[in-house]
Every structure is written in structure tokens, then in C-alpha cells.
Write a structure and sequence with these properties.
CATH class of the largest domain: Mainly Beta
Number of strands: 13
CATH superfamily of the largest domain: Glucose Permease (Domain IIA)
Shape: rod-shaped
CATH topology of the largest domain: Glucose Permease (Domain IIA)
Length: about 240
């Protein structure tokens, strides 16, 4: 009885093997399709170890390199910075006043002296001599030594005629024992070399010295050495 059942089962499988294989194949195909679909629907990033996210690198600004200062062309030419230095245009100008000789071709009879006395042969005494006596022939021209304004023209019996020229800034020149030109007036502007008068001997305090010009210089009301302005000390 059991053998019949076995034969029947075998015969059944044999008869239906083709369909059995087709069914198994369909099951396998369905399984594969199911696996593929399930895999395709899965998040591709799922299961992966997340990569560490690095913070964004901040760009570091380049350090600004200070520009080297280019020396000024003038500094190079003058050998460095001129601050505190004196340029040629800024050099002090020599403002020393130099007088023109008041009478030409004259010799000094008596020079200026403030520390000693000289003999006055007219008066017969030793006196101070705060000017220069230029010996010259009577009638020789006497000119202004420097530009200025005629301050005064005076005449006295003992001293004769005196012309005073104001040069400004406290400086004055005095011309004594002369015959002043008639056209000369007080307040008149004169330049160096302008005619003031002529050599004479009308200064009776010194008439024995002969015709001469007695020349004096005042600075701020004090008699000073005319040689300093006539540059005679440097000759």
C-alpha cells in the first residue's frame, strides 16, 4: 500500500515537474525582484559612518608690509633731511652799511679817537676828536656818504656850516666846515654820492689846519667811529 503511494507521488512529480520548475523559478525571480526593490528604496547614506565635518577655513588677511619711504629728491641732493638746516636762499643777508667816501683824493689829518686826546693848534689845547678830518683843497666837492634825508643845515661863527643827513634806524652822518650848495634844503632826499657842498676852512676852531672836511657819524644819538662805515680800518 505504501509502495503504491510512493509510486503515485513519484508519478505525480514526474508528470508535473515542468510546472514545478516553472513555479520555483517564478518564486526565485519574485524574491530577487523584491530584494532589488527593497534595496533601491533604502537611503544610500544610511548605515554609513558620517564623515567629520571640518569648520570652514577662514582666510587670513595678508599682513600689510609697510612701504619703505622714498627719500625726497631734494633730501638726496642736499645729503639728507633739510629740516633744521639752512638752505642757501635762507642764509642771512649781510646788511652791513658801507659809506661812500664823502670827499675824494683826501688825506686824513686827524683820525677818530675816543680814548685819547689830540692837540688843537688853533685853540692851543688837547681835546678829544670824535670825527675824522679829511684834508683837501678848498672847493672840492663833498657828497653824501649814504642815502637819506637832509635833517638840518646850520651855520655858526665858530663852527662854520654843518649839514646833517639822517639815514634812518638811528644812523646819521655830519659834514662840517663846508660851504653847502644853495639848492640844498632840509627834508630833501639824497642818495649816496649826491652833492652837499664844498670843502672850506669856515670852522674857525680848526682853521689853522687849513681847508678840510670834519666828518662825524652818530648812531642812536652817540658818536661812533666813522672808520667802521667807511671801511678804512680794513684797508
Amino acid at each position: 500500500m505504501s509502495e503504491k503511494k510512493t509510486v503515485s507521488v513519484f508519478n505525480f512529480i514526474k508528470r508535473n515537474l515542468y510546472y514545478f520548475l516553472i513555479g520555483v523559478s517564478l518564486i526565485i525571480i519574485a524574491t530577487v525582484i523584491a530584494i532589488v526593490v527593497a534595496t533601491s528604496n533604502k537611503n544610500p547614506d544610511e548605515g554609513k559612518t558620517p564623515e567629520s565635518v571640518l569648520p570652514p577655513i577662514e582666510s587670513t588677511p595678508e599682513e600689510s608690509t609697510p612701504e619703505e619711504s622714498t627719500p625726497n629728491q631734494n633730501e638726496n641732493e642736499n645729503g639728507g633731511n633739510n629740516s633744521g638746516g639752512v638752505e642757501e636762499d635762507d642764509k642771512p643777508v649781510d646788511t652791513k652799511i658801507v659809506f661812500t667816501m664823502p670827499v675824494s683824493s683826501a688825506q686824513i689829518l686827524k683820525n677818530y679817537t675816543s680814548s685819547t686826546v689830540v692837540y688843537n693848534q688853533t685853540l692851543g689845547v688837547y681835546t678829544g676828536h670824535m670825527g675824522i678830518d679829511f684834508g683837501a683843497e678848498a672847493g672840492m666837492e663833498v657828497v653824501s656818504s649814504y642815502g637819506g634825508t637832509v635833517e638840518s643845515i646850520t651855520t655858526s661863527y665858530l663852527q662854520g656850516t654843518t649839514v646833517t643827513v639822517d639815514h634812518g634806524n638811528g644812523l646819521k652822518s655830519v659834514y662840517n666846515s663846508i660851504d653847502a650848495v644853495e639848492s640844498l634844503t632840509e627834508g630833501q632826499r639824497v642818495s649816496a654820492g649826491d652833492l652837499l657842498g664844498y670843502v672850506s676852512d669856515n670852522n674857525r676852531q680848526e682853521y689853522k689846519d687849513g681847508p678840510h672836511l670834519h666828518f662825524e657819524v652818530f648812531l642812536n644819538g652817540e658818536r661812533v667811529d666813522p672808520n667802521d662805515y667807511l671801511m678804512l680800518n680794513e684797508k
